Amino acid sequence: MIRFLLNALWFVFGSGFVLAIGYGLAALVCFVLIVTIPFGVAALRLARYSLWPFGRTLVEKPDAGLASGAANIVWLLVAGWWLALSHILAGIAQCVSIVGIPFGLANFKLVPAALWPLGREVVETP
Question: Where are the domains of the chain?
Fold first, then answer.
């Protein structure tokens, strides 16, 4: 019940809806450009994760290979570093107030996903 409440509050007040829209639009651009479809899939994964982050975590896929590692380097140089920086800055701003601390921590939880999204999957936490 607490996870649902935190996710609902995150969706409205913690920028979950805005993040999901942004990652979704980035995914659409990647799908249109065809060559960047794997990045679009990663952006959709980030959109879903940023929509409901409480009760979920990011784990590495055991079958991720060298191609996902190389694509992650491209992602890091093109988009990952500024996405991670924006999550860090938003997390700091949200942690200023006591009410915003859970939302700030959720933003900090999204930093590794924004930096290195390929070869990972979102799973439910027990």
Answer: 2-124
